[in-house]
Amino acid sequence: MAPICEGIAESTVSQNQSNPVIATVVEILPNAIVRLKTEYGAEVLAHFSAEARSELVRLLPGDRVKVEVSPYHKGRGRIVGKV
Amino acid sequence: MSKTKNGIILKTAKEIEIIKEGGKMLRQCLQMVREAALERVRTKELDQLAYDFIVSRGGRPAFKGYRGFPATLCISINEEVVHGIPNNRRLKAGDIVSVDCGLAWQGFIADSATTIAVGEIDPKLQKLLKVTEESLYLGIEKAQAGNYVQDISRAVQEHVESHGFSVVRDLVGHGVGKDLHEEPQVPNFVSKEKGAKLEPGMVIAIEPMVNTGTFEVVSKRDGWTIVTVDKGHSAHYEHTVAITNNGPMILTNGE
């Protein structure tokens, strides 16, 4: 049985990640949290991923972003980039 | 307390002999499964055969109950890479089936795997199986005291990629002994980490997993089965190998 590779940078541990959906920014809250509305109408409270943090500085309500909606926690997500 | 080197548990010559005995039984078990893997056979039936074989000879199937895994064998067909759970699926001609098994014997575990062709298979798949098996043995050749884990990884990766196949990155080989998964990790690809230095007394499971398409894999909703992202076929071979002063000793080839 093969264990999952740990700690080696090249490994892309892709386990049950949600596909990113496009959402519009409704409001920007403190601590890098953003309220979004997905194109399917769902309201999502999302945080900025470390990779996408630099986009936060220029983000305005009405902008469109890519968000991975959590399969475990309804209405939460992770912003992975701008559209 | 067993001797350790940098967190890697070293086994005495006696302990290696015990693993070898278990490895011989494991080899016979896999041979039996290979001969039973015909068209229309259900994967569950193969699992039952392996279970009966092991238990009747006083061994213990090491996968059953490990982190909740429900069966004796991992049976992975075609685009399934590893950790397939045996079920009512029937084998078809043209399938490639990788069978992975762990056997606990007198407190020590041997881990081995092989890929079986059901009936006639596509020449490209025949090449996949051949290259994967060859890469295992090329990796084993490098399992010498004084080498690093990375030397094994390099041998596997270069052989596989020179034939146009890809090496799975998310899953790795591993040390084995009293536990199924011990230090060190044995990746099948080269990275910045040289990995552990190989010393006599180490016992590792080298298990190249090779895909026809991209190396990327993802797990299925059952929480166990790993499949290729592009649905390309995948082959898997594995041996448990002891590092000795006289070179690598394969413990799971029945010799």
What is the topology?
The complex is a heterodimer of chains A (83) and B (255).
Chain A: E1 21-29, E2 33-38, E3 43-48, E4 64-69, E5 76-82
Parallel strand pairs in A: 3-5
Antiparallel strand pairs in A: 1-2, 1-4, 2-3, 4-5
Chain B: E1 4-5, E2 8-9, H1 13-36, H2 43-56, E3 60-61, E4 73-77, E5 80-82, E6 96-105, E7 108-117, H3 123-141, H4 149-162, E8 166-167, E9 173-175, E10 182-186, E11 203-206, E12 209-211, E13 217-219, E14 226-228, E15 234-236, E16 239-244, E17 247-250
Antiparallel strand pairs in B: 1-2, 3-6, 4-6, 5-14, 6-7, 8-12, 9-10, 9-11, 11-16, 12-15, 13-14, 16-17
Helix pairs in contact in B: 1-2, 3-4
Question: Can you offer a commentary on this structure?
Answer:
The complex is a heterodimer of chains A (83) and B (255). Chain A has 83 residues and is mainly beta. Chain A contains no helices and five strands. Chain A has one domain (21-82): Beta Barrel (OB fold (Dihydrolipoamide Acetyltransferase, E2P)). Chain A has a five-stranded mixed barrel. With 255 residues, chain B is an alpha+beta fold. Chain B is 28% helix and 27% strand. Chain B starts with a strand and ends in a 5-residue tail after the last strand. The mean pLDDT of chain B is 94. Classes of the chains: A mainly beta (83), B alpha+beta (255). The interface between A and B is medium-sized, with 17 and 31 residues.
Features:
heterodimer; A: 83 residues; mainly beta; OB fold (Dihydrolipoamide Acetyltransferase, E2P); 5 strands; 0% helix; B: 255 residues; alpha+beta; Creatine Amidinohydrolase; 5-stranded antiparallel beta sheet; 4-stranded antiparallel beta sheet; 4 helices
How do you describe this structure in short?
The complex is a heterodimer of chains A (83) and B (255). Chain A is an all-beta fold and 83 residues long.
Overall pLDDT level of chain A? 82
CATH architecture of chain B: Alpha-Beta Complex
Quick one: how many beta strands of chain A? Answer: 5
Total count of domains of chain A: 1
Oligomeric state of the chains present here? heterodimer
Largest sheet composition of chain A: 5 strands, mixed, barrel
Q: Provide a count of the helices of chain B.
A: 4
Report the portion of residues of chain B in β strands: 25-35%
Sheet having the most strands of chain B: 5 strands, antiparallel
- The CATH architecture term of chain A is Beta Barrel
Low-pLDDT sequence parts of chain B: none
CATH classification, class level of chain A:
Mainly Beta
Most extensive protein-chain contact, per-chain counts: A-B, 17 and 31 residues
What class would the helix/strand composition of chain B place it in? Answer: alpha+beta
